[in-house]
Protein 1
Amino acid sequence: MRIIHMTDLHIGVDRCTQIIKNMVSRIRNDFNPDTDVVVISGDIADTAESRTLALATLAPLTPFRILMVPGNHDYGHSGLGMAWECVQDFDQDVYGGNGHFPKVDTIGDITFIGLDSMREKFFWDDPPDPYEDTNRRTKPKPTAEGLQGCLGNSQRNALKAILQGLPSGQKAVLYMHHDPVKGQIAMELLDRVQLKTIVGDHKSKIAALLCGHTHKFRVHDSWPIESYNGGTSGARDGGEPNLRLIDLANASVTEQFD
């Protein structure tokens, strides 16, 4: 199985939209829906208002299995501001109202586990405390601010249970928007330390972790598993569009540019 990793498409920005249209055509022409899976790790649209355009732009990929999780831009009207109504709309438009996380899809001998690295922020007074749930709200706030992310105890505990229950020979691929490897404080995953512990405890069961958010195209070697930041497929900040092909069967990674 091969994974076509896309992230930070930012469809709705004219330049990004055209780049992604070209990338979609290339994927259809150069890759095989019988063996290749498309994984998109967030910021599919540049704003929530562009979601319809984003989904229409990606529609030609429907012969492929497409797995996606939201980014901060998908949940709001800007990168900094998110709205709970946009969370609900994304859930309906993308998952048909069944957007439960972790999102689990098993394809062959790979179990893909999608995590939402923003939703927990709606249940905390800023900044969220990633270590305890003692002050967690029972109902979401109407808005949430900032570029940091947080998985929260519920998702982390569910992730542990999923990994513990994987049958022998089954491998997991984790994908999420925020890069869990420590970087810029303003953009970090607040509970990255706890996630790293979970990953370390189950590293023999995890083939890779895919992420984005920082627009930095890189492979991290400081984690217990291979961790791939997909940069920005839409080239949101200028430069080259990023597309990475990960061949799990042959343990090879190809960094491709449109």
Note: Residues 2-256 form a domain with the Purple Acid Phosphatase; chain A, domain 2 fold (CATH 3.60.21.10).
Protein 2
Amino acid sequence: MGRRILMRWFGLFLIAAGVIWIAFSFNSANLAWGNMIPFNTKEINIEREVPMSGVQNLLVDSVSTNVNVIQGSSNQIKVRLSGRISPKYVDTIDLKVAPQGDALKLGVNLPDGMNWGLLNLDMNVELPEKLWKSVKVETKSGDVKLAQTKGDSIDVKSSSGDIQLSQVQAKSATIHAASGNVKMKNVESNQITLQASSGNLVVDDFKSDELAFTAGSGNVKLSGGQSKIKGEASTGDIQLELNSLLQDTDLKAGSGNVTVHMEKEPQSLAVDYRGGSGKGHIQWNGMKYEENAENVIRGSYGSGEVKLKVRISSGDFTLGKG
């Protein structure tokens, strides 16, 4: 019994010693971990105002900050960099504001040798209300939020952060997230192109002539909109929740399910489904079948003017209600 008590106290001692050692290591200024942002930081707040005159194209290129672009209330472009950073970098970090003819490039000047992966900064950009020729936002490891923006061309790219768009109007909108999620709401564009290598794509309340998407290992959900749709998901599910299907739709999935839910009964829809190891399910009555097998369904409602084409390697297909 005495030996058990002794061993228990020895175990508690080892745990306590480990906790003390970790705390010392993280706070020691002489050790590498001592420079990490969360433990010894100073707040920064840098602001710039840029005259709007002549600026038609905007490029925000940030290495490792979150970027938030919104519509402001003044006729100036306002840029603010805020957050917390190691005190030794406070006097060496600054906003980059570079006018180039009718273009304006915004970014962050970082000191040489700085580990930008340890930054905890936000860049907020307030834009005057106008129709831009182009708006491009790119960040390597930060999140991007873009709202209340109009432009001929809108291009957003993030290597390892999430992307959110809302209240955006454009002739063309191109969104690319390498390892983050994409979420869009209330977006109007003649052409919408979406890419997500390992994150989810979620689009709600959209209006477009054509929407194209490519997803790697994430799921895709499109709801509350109308567009010609063409998309592919390698290992995720594809889900459409629409009032009705009024334009041609072409969907392809590798190892995921494809579900198309409509609130209204199809009036003029041709269905062409072919699957590998999955099954097809049609929940709406009234289809005139040309072929109806477990993994092949061909048929139409009405005259079949709108085409729905679905190809799946190893998932199920459902044409459902509501």
Note: The mean pLDDT is 89.
